[in-house]
Specification:
The chain has 310 residues and is of the alpha+beta class. The protein contains 13 helices and nine strands. It has two domains: 165 residues, DD-peptidase/beta-lactamase superfamily (Beta-lactamase, 3-Layer(aba) Sandwich); 131 residues, DD-peptidase/beta-lactamase superfamily (Beta-lactamase). Bound molecules: glutamic acid (GLU).
Length: 310
């Protein structure tokens, strides 16, 4: 790993962004949530955040929704609220090899538990473990938590939330199935409401990199204040490696080797332990649902800065 050098890194980041612009044309913006169709397939941003500051290149002024990236944050909250034993009673620790929204293994796995907290079924089960009277109370806690990490009061994109709430039939199916098998606690629609809201929280690419830095710093804010236990971050970082990039996590671990989590809005957050937080944005997705420019930028960055943890 080379030491943080703003000018040198900025040049490297700029070159990487331009070199990978070509990929966007080969990807496709997610359209199964109607509001996400509005994403600009040509937009691209890359942000690196370290203890010494952050550098931004590309279309960094845009806000986008966290989508699946919210899963790592709600998992942290649930682990802090309930402890690992209770969380892992409801959700497993293994990659699935299936698409993120697959229902198949819920019925065929002996325990009926979703295989991990990064797939939709697992994340919905995790929602039911967050403490609070109802989904309003719980989402308030989630928003407060993320606002502390990114140092801005984050909000929900109402259109994206509404759009997913109206069309999230598959997520509803997963949730009702898990209610039947007693994996899910509480009122199903209330749990789903929290899930749809957490996915619709808006951030910028710079804020994404701050989330990455928070993870890289094992749960400490930039002011040194500890927000979650180190062990919580250790668990979440491990899931990022094994399941963070959908069913392309193995390939990404080989090509980039950085713990990362992606979302169907085209965002990816990555964390190089004790060193860097990285945010990438590019709404054109590959066939696995990862930002096509994002995965290539991260692989190049890892290569040029020696960032692989392996
Ligand atoms: N809100 C999305 C869904 O549930 C999140 C998926 C993702 O980003 O992977 O389908």
């Amino acid at each position: 790993m080379i030491p943080w050098n703003y000018t040198q890194f900025k040049q490297i980041a700029q070159n990487i962004l331009e070199d990978n612009r070509k990929w966007s044309a080969q990807g496709k913006v997610a359209d199964y949530i109607p509001e996400l169709k509005k994403g600009d397939p040509n937009a691209m941003a890359l942000v690196l955040a370290s203890r010494d500051g952050s550098l931004v290149v590309g279309d960094c002024d845009r806000l986008f929704t966290l989508q699946s990236i919210s899963k790592i944050l709600t998992l942290m909250i649930a682990l802090e609220d309930q402890g690992p034993a209770k969380v892992f009673f409801h959700v497993g620790k293994e990659p699935t090899g299936d698409p993120f929204n697959s229902i198949a293994k819920l019925e065929t796995t002996a325990t009926a538990r979703p295989l991990n907290p990064m797939i939709n079924a697992g994340a919905i089960a995790v929602c039911s473990l967050i403490k609070g009277k109802n989904s309003d109370d719980k989402i308030k806690r989630v928003l407060e938590f993320i606002s502390m990490v990114v140092e801005r009061e984050v909000t929900i994109n109402a259109e994206v939330y509404q759009s997913e709430k109206e069309t999230g039939h598959r997520n509803r199916a997963l949730a009702y199935f898990m209610k039947d098998t007693e994996v899910l606690e509480g009122d199903v629609e209330d749990v789903l409401d929290l899930y749809f809201k957490q996915c619709a929280i808006e951030v910028s690419c710079e804020e994404l990199a701050k989330i990455g830095l928070f993870i890289a710093k094992k749960g400490e804010l930039t002011n040194g204040r500890r927000m979650v236990q180190r062990d919580t971050v250790r668990l979440v970082t491990t899931f990022m490696v094994t399941c963070g990039m959908y069913n392309a996590s193995g390939e990404f671990a080989i090509n980039a080797g950085i713990p990362a989590k992606s979302g169907v809005s085209g965002a990816i957050v990555a964390a190089v332990p004790n060193y860097l937080g990285i945010g990438t944005y590019g709404p054109a997705l590959d066939e696995k649902g990862n930002s096509i420019s994002g995965v290539h930028m991260l692989a190049d960055l890892a290569d040029q800065l020696g960032l692989s943890i392996f």
